[in-house]
């Protein structure tokens, strides 16, 4: 997610399901340091406009070794641009917290769950989603439920704060495709507000233009 560009160096961990290093998983996690100048922010991203264009790419300094547990996911095909996916079952994985204690106690530091978990949901109609979000409006951060977003209704208390940037996946023709990424964790414990995801298919031209083989 684009708005996560804060420290000078990020640390990414691959092949890791449990953030507790004392729990044996059978493999050693792969740690990758990512410098700020190796993060490509989508040029249309505006930090003061919520939800939209919240996407970024990371350039790695070396090739990743493909294993049974570290594999690429399919990117959207051109026909995904025109599809709404309304009613489709989707999945996303996250370490985001699974209770609303932070929302009840805003001064408490945000935390993550130690174990990666999978959440399923259904894509909902864009107009219905926009109606639900009309109550979210401030002078500085106008609500925009645009075509660049996918809305999905998911079970609350399954994942929330801390899951921005997590992948939204769709099983299509026997393969999993990266349909989107979590764009915001706003009111994520409130069933009234669907979760919002950046629709990846609309950014494929930009993604391909930044690929280097």
From TrEMBL:
SUPFAM superfamilies: Trypsin-like serine proteases. This is Peptidase S1 domain-containing protein. Transmembrane segments: none annotated. Belongs to the peptidase S1 family. CLIP subfamily. Residues 1-212 form the Peptidase S1 domain. PROSITE patterns: TRYPSIN_DOM. Keywords: Disulfide bond. One of its GO terms (molecular function) is serine-type endopeptidase activity. Gene3D superfamilies: Trypsin-like serine proteases.
């Amino acid at each position: 997610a684009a708005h996560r560009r804060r420290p000078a160096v990020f640390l990414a961990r691959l092949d890791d399901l449990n953030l507790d290093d004392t729990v044996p998983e059978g493999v050693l996690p792969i740690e990758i340091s990512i410098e700020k100048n190796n993060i490509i922010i989508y040029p249309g991203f505006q930090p003061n406009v919520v939800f939209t264009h919240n996407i970024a790419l990371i350039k790695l300094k070396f090739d990743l070794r493909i294993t049974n547990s570290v594999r690429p996911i399919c990117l959207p095909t051109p026909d995904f641009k025109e599809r709404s996916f309304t009613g489709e079952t989707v999945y996303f994985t996250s370490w985001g917290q699974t209770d609303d204690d932070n929302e009840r106690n805003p001064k408490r530091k945000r935390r993550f769950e130690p174990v990666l978990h999978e959440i399923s949901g259904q894509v909902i109609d864009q107009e219905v989603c926009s109606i639900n979000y009309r109550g979210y409006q401030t002078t500085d951060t106008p609500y925009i439920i645009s075509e660049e977003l996918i809305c999905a209704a998911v079970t609350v208390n399954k994942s929330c704060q801390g899951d921005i940037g997590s992948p939204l996946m769709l099983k299509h023709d026997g393969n999993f495709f990266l349909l989107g990424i979590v764009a915001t964790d706003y009111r994520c414990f409130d069933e009234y507000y669907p979760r919002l995801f950046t629709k990846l298919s609309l950014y494929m031209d930009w993604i391909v233009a930044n690929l280097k083989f």
